[in-house]
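Reading a protein record of the kind used here takes only a little practice. Think of the row as the fold of the chain written in a discrete alphabet. A record is reproduced here so that you can trace the correspondence yourselves:
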Amino acid sequence: MSLDKYIQDGQDLKVVEKIHTKIVDMLTHGEALSYIALQKKPAVTLLPDSIAISNKRIFLCEFTKLGLATNFEIFSWKDIKDIAFKEEIFGSKVTVIPFTGENLSIDYIPKTQARKLYQLIKEALENVKIESEEPAPAVKPVVPIRDLYEEPKREIPAPITPAFEAPATQPIVERPVVVPEEIKAEPAPVFERPEPSPVKIEVEEDELTLKLKKLKGLFDKQLISQAEYESKKAEILSQL
């Protein structure tokens, strides 16, 4: 793979190749490395610190133990708040400002590379901001196929029922007219001539009725049997 695009601003090819090999192994699906900036101190530095950026993340690399180990600080663009750099006599100091945690800085970055870093990182942060502000696409309601060919249904308004009339669905109940006691007319007395009836018959009917009720009470209390009840009842009724 050609590394020419990573050494266009004076980067050391050997250092770029070593850093590129390490970072490529950490790239995720659809992620591509776009730029690598190398530290350049006034004194000779065999393994300088570096800043590499991809379309998804930013990598801050620091070689330790004579190049046998590497410390990485890796941030997603969503975790970065801003980027700043300060030009000094020997190069620039680039500072990455995350939303949480301490700021991370690498000094002695050549000025040309620092400006390129600033430009690319600002563009990445702006893209993240635009993506977060884009509203979610509106979901159109699914219209059943049959509704596309059917005529629109017309709603028939419900009939207006006058306040003084009962609804048609409710039965009409006639209520008796209650006349106050003070205005009720007393009915005229009706004098009827009772038919004469022997006193003896009324006395006998009352006695028979009492006997039948008493007999029925005894039977209900189970004090007499069914046969006794029927026999006694027949005897009483024979007196009529």
